Amino acid sequence: MRFLLIEDNAELAHSVRDRLALDGHAVDHAAILSDAEDHLSVATYDLILLDIMLPDGDGRDFLERHRKERRDTPVIVMTARSAVSDRVALLDTGADDYITKPFDFAELEARVRAVLRRRRGAAQPKISYGDLEFDPLGATVTVSGDARDLRNRELRLLEILMTAPDRIHSKSHLCDRLFSASEAVSDNAIEVYVARVRKKLDGSTARIETVRGVGYRLTGG
Question: How many structural domains are present in the chain?
Fold first, then answer.
């Protein structure tokens, strides 16, 4: 999935981005609110991680505008404010969750998973298609109950395809979802990941079909 991290502390931003990348997520970083707005104008995000005190404004004002404009991207606020009244105000403004600085990265990852799970609106997070089953939280894939070993970006690619089966995904769309803006990638990178996932799903009734000149889709479910 692709996240937008709005944080002016370069060291913290680097650590958060690296930690989430280990889970296969692409993270774009904006140190100021104006850069965040630029990112949002050209890309679609699955989650926003938002600091409050930023050099060019208050993250709470950004959050309020975000909701008034009917943007529904989930937002986790990262704040040093620990008072109950502050946390309640953030939730009332439109935050989906918050985490108090300094925080443990394991807690951040858990809150990210919880927010994404709630956004999917499913008590049972597993996704099934034909004989293929994917558990995003457990990061496991099975074919007819047989476990398959997929790496992080392979898992994210499969998740994109499984959440919209039979839909054609262009290479540019997949690049946008799998890689951050700072990563230099080509269409060939998508071909490589598709080939890897196909090999690991060998024997499944579900298959990744190439639609020549257009993109890829998951079929056979």
Answer: 2
Pairwise CA distance, residues 62 & 33, whole Å: 7
Q: For all residues of the chain together, what is the average pLDDT? A: 89
- Look up residue 86 and give its two tokens: 């502050």
The helix (H) or strand (E) run that includes residue 157 is helix 152-163
User: What Å distances lie between residue 43 and 140, 177, 214, CA to CA?
Assistant: 28, 9, 20
CATH code of the domain in which 138 resides? 1.10.10.10
Distances (CA, A) of 221 to 21, 133, 182, 215, 217: 30, 11, 35, 18, 11
What is the domain range of residue 184?
A: 127-219
Confidence grade of residue 192 (pLDDT, cut at 50, 70, 90): very high
State whether 194 and 103 are in the same domain: no
